[in-house]
Amino acid sequence: MTTIADTTPAPSLERLVERRIPGRALEAPFYADDDVFDLDISAIFTRHWLFVASTAEIPEPGDYLTIDIGPYPILVIRDDDGDVRALHNVCRHRGSRVLSESSGSTGNLVCGYHQWTYATDGRLLHAGQQAADFDKTCYALKTVHCRVVGGLIFICLAADPPSDFDDVASRTLPYLAPHQLHRTKVAAQLDTVEDANWKLVMENNRECYHCEAGHPELMYTFFPTYGYAEDEIPPRLMPAHARYLQAQADLESACTERGMPYEEIEEIAGRPSAFRIQREPLDGAGESYTLDGSAACRKLLGDLDITRLGRLSLHHQPNSWFHFLADHAVTSMAIPLGPERTLVRTTWLVHEDAVEGRDYDADNLTAVWRRTNEQDAELVVRAQSGVKSPVYEPGPYAPNEYQVDSFCTWYIDETRKYLRS
Fold it and tell me: Which of UniProt's keywords are assigned here (predicted)?
């Protein structure tokens, strides 16, 4: 018989982190406790590089978007020179948010409270009536570290961001370059607030143990052997594995002919800017994420000349995952809103010259990942409900969930470093 004991004092954050058992899920407080959530913002989301948008989302000077990282309101804008900048969206007068809309376009940045006015690079231009010795140069908007990698915008709130991001950028850029994201536009964007902790969202994304039963639309093109070691593939999946091996050989040949890297780089633990990148084949027609695997957009990205180039998948911790295909790209990010609420934003990009209704149908383009996102949202809500039960105990990961284990190991390592700093 299971007994329930709910009188045990909550462990300290340090103790909770130190007693994590490798190979098993995290304890319940990691997914629901207010103090752990505050720790996550401080140890993870203000100290690491975060994906926040693609350059296609702010294509022209003055275009901007805003986003909150914990208590930090952030403004990402393309300045008058066309450079992408990130600024704290906090007026230097009395702290009002300068821009309140989620996105838009502006000439100057005008605070709606007392009309302090800033240039798109953050310089203070106008502050009304001030004392004679007032120096405008001392009151620019505070900056946030910002990097653009192959059309992907990353920011870091730390005073000294992790320096290993330079290595990540240099190694991933050759994979991204053929897709020329700087020549794309937004075809669709979907915001979903999932009622679950951000770690459950990321853990769910790092395994496909649940895919066969949970994602029928995705499985038209996603090989069911993903995550299995060669000698651990169940007999029932061997026909799919044979298709995968042939598709992989064809993909490698096409990539070699075009000078495109495809090899796996997997460093999802053991470094601050943990990541994984690999170009892999798709099942079905092998061209795109659609219900039959055929291309969803007639206008291919960049200067790509064939549709059957599989999927280039990139995962970057703590908050993003991407799929780049010959005909379109899908970017996804997770931003924690609270201990049990997470914003998941998915954006579909197509060639800048693609015309809806002629080159692509938006419903067809987005169908697979829209449905997959809905299914994932349901799954993580079920997980959130379960881990809050007094009888929940962290269970063991299956071999094909090794990336989840690595993600949790990375999270614990980075949190431990913060607590000891």
Answer: 2Fe-2S, Dioxygenase, Iron, Iron-sulfur, Metal-binding, Oxidoreductase
